[in-house]
C-alpha cells in the first residue's frame, strides 16, 4: 500500500488500513519505547497508546512528513512523558516512605527491569551505559537513543526531532563526549 | 589510563549490539479492545459522587460560617453617637457646646 493511499484511508477511519499500519510498524514503535523505558510491559502498554493516538490525531496530520516519522515522534514524546510521570511518582512515594509507607517504594513498577535485547556478555556494560544515558540532557538522550538503539540516520532523527541535520550531529557529538566523561569518572572511582 | 580508555570504548560500543525485540503478535487485538473500551461511556461510581457531595457540603459550610462572621462584625460596629444613645448617656462634647 502506498503511503498516500494509506494516509487517505487512515483519515477515513478505514479499519483495514489501521491494521496494516499497526502490523507494519508495531515492532519499530515497540523497540523505540523499549529503548527509553527498558521494561517490556510498560513499552507494550505505551505502544498501544501510540497507535491509539495516531488513530485519533491522523486527521490533523498534514502529510508533510513520512508516516513513520509521525509515529516515531509520538512514540518519543509519549515515552518522555511517561518517564517524567514515573519520576514524579517516585518522588511522591519517597515522601510517603518518610511517613512510614515504605511499601510504596517496593511496588512492582519501581523494580528495575531489563531490556531483553541486551546480549548476555554485554549486560553489565550496557546497564552502566544506560544509567549514564539517563543523566544526559533530554535532547542528547533522545538523539543518542534513536541513533544507537533504533538505528536511525542523522536525517531521520532530524525529521523526528524537527531539527536540522547539523543540530543532530552536534547533539550526538556532545552526547558522546558527556558519556565518555561520565564513564571516565565512574572507572576512575572504581579503581 | 589506557585500560580506562579501552573500557570506555567497549562500554560505548555495547549499545550497538542490542538486538531488536519482537512485539506482541496480538498487539492489534489489544489496541482494538482498548479503543472499544475507550469509546464506551464511562460510568462514574457512586463513590465519586459521594466524595463530590462531601466536598460541596464542606465548602458550603465554610461559606456560611465566613458570611455569618462577616455580618456579625458589621453589626457590632457602632458610631459614637449610636453607642451613647444605646447606653443612655451623652458625650462630653455636647456638654460644652454653646
Automatic annotation (TrEMBL), chain A:
CDD domains per UniProt: Sigma70_r4 (cd06171)
InterPro entries in the record: RNA_pol_sigma-70-like, RNA_pol_sigma-70_dom, RNA_pol_sigma70_ECF_CS, RNA_pol_sigma70_r2, RNA_pol_sigma70_r4_t2, RNA_pol_sigma_r2, RNA_pol_sigma_r3/r4-like, WH-like_DNA-bd_sf
Signal peptide (from-to): none
This protein's UniProt keywords: DNA-binding, Sigma factor, Transcription, Transcription regulation
Protein's GO biological process: DNA-templated transcription initiation
Family annotation (PANTHER family): RNA POLYMERASE ECF-TYPE SIGMA FACTO, RNA POLYMERASE SIGMA FACTOR HI_1459-RELATED
Protein name, as recorded: RNA polymerase sigma factor
Organism per entry: Arcicella rosea
From TrEMBL, chain B:
Transmembrane region(s): 46-71
Origin superkingdom: Bacteria
Keywords recorded for this protein, A-Z: Membrane, Transmembrane, Transmembrane helix
Name the record gives this protein: Uncharacterized protein
Organism: Arcicella rosea
Amino acid at each position: 500500500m502506498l503511503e498516500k493511499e494509506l494516509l487517505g484511508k487512515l483519515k477515513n477511519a478505514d479499519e483495514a488500513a489501521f491494521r496494516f499500519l499497526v502490523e507494519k510498524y508495531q515492532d519499530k514503535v515497540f523497540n523505540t519505547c523499549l529503548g527509553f523505558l527498558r521494561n517490556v510491559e510498560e513499552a507494550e502498554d505505551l505502544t498501544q497508546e501510540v497507535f491509539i493516538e495516531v488513530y485519533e490525531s491522523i486527521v490533523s496530520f498534514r502529510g508533510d512528513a513520512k508516516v513513520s516519522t509521525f509515529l516515531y515522534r509520538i512514540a518519543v514524546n509519549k515515552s518522555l512523558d511517561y518517564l517524567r510521570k514515573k519520576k514524579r511518582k517516585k518522588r511522591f512515594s519517597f515522601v510517603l516512605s518518610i511517613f512510614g509507607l515504605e511499601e510504596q517504594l517496593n511496588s512492582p513498577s519501581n523494580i528495575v527491569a531489563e531490556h531483553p535485547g541486551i546480549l548476555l556478555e554485554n549486560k553489565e556494560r550496557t546497564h552502566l551505559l544506560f544509567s549514564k544515558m539517563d543523566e544526559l540532557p533530554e535532547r542528547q538522550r533522545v538523539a543518542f537513543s534513536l541513533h544507537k538503539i533504533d538505528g536511525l540516520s542523522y536525517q531521520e532523527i532530524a525529521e523526528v526531532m524537527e531539527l536540522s541535520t547539523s543540530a543532530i550531529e552536534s547533539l550526538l557529538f556532545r552526547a558522546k563526549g558527556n558519556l565518555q566523561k561520565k564513564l571516565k569518572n565512574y572507572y576512575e572511582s572504581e579503581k | 589510563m589506557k585500560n580506562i580508555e579501552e573500557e570506555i570504548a567497549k562500554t560505548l560500543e555495547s549499545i550497538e549490539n542490542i538486538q531488536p525485540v519482537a512485539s506482541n503478535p496480538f498487539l492489534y487485538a489489544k489496541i482494538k479492545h482498548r479503543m472499544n473500551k475507550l469509546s464506551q461511556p464511562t460510568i462514574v461510581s457512586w463513590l465519586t459522587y459521594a466524595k463530590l457531595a462531601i466536598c460541596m457540603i464542606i465548602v458550603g459550610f465554610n461559606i456560611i460560617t465566613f458570611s455569618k462572621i462577616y455580618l456579625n462584625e458589621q453589626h457590632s460596629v457602632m458610631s459614637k453617637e449610636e453607642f451613647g444613645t444605646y447606653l443612655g448617656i451623652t458625650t462630653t462634647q455636647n456638654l460644652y457646646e454653646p
